[in-house]
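Table S2 (continued). Query chain:
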Amino acid sequence: LVPSLLHEARRIIQNMDPSELLNPDEDGDTLLHIYAAKGMRESVWAMAERTASLGGLNSKEHNGKTPLLVAVTANQAPVVWDLICFGADVRATDFKGQNPLHLAAKYGYTEILQVIKASKCKINLETRNFEGLTALHCAVKGHNELLKTHRNSMAQVQDTLDCISVLLHMGSSVFTQDIKNNNSVLHLAVQEANLVLVRYFLQYITDRLPEFINMKAHGNTALHMAAGLHHQENQEEIIRLLLFYGADPSVRNLENDQPAHLLPQGEAGARMKLLLKRGRNANPITPRV
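Corresponding output:
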């Protein structure tokens, strides 16, 4: 905060009528929404001082976003901190059921997550949005998407991986499954042949690893999904990783198929079928960090 700018912002806002402070524009935005989106920290501070007692901190614009959610979406970490300190509701959700954690995870805003963590506010890490996803699911899906569309922007990919790390350190559970498809974070990573995340989660888990790696999503384990990754360059390495960490190749899905039944035809399929037959002892690999 710049003292001179804060003094000027306070002077301007003190001279405004309360209705002018709280009345929304045609998009449902109050002045606090606008200041938050633009990162005008001194104006946000002065506005919050004036309107906190009037209920202005948690008013919603046309997408259901409070000023805090707007600040998160705009990646304005200092403003997020200030609004939380003034009492903004960190559990507020927009019209898609997204809370600050969902939005920060979705966009790969690590600093926002760190601010929320530092605030020590009570927020349920397993809260699902209206798609049935937790913040950790959102971060994994964001990482999947970035790997597909922004391979040349590894900084963005790393930001999303950092978000996953922060959420895990905050206490997010890797065992939570989404509502729609029963996918765990491992299922989501395997489905997109995301070798980076598959390796990351398998190395992260130190407790209940057999349970984690053999969880089912509508009958399919991660190994079933990996076997179905036809024409994906990472397929064989993902299968090797899963086997190395204890995936069970004998498990059958709802169609009574084992992973070996889902492999592609041809030489590559035959090679992977042999891996599955050998199980955990198939050409042990040295996992890379």
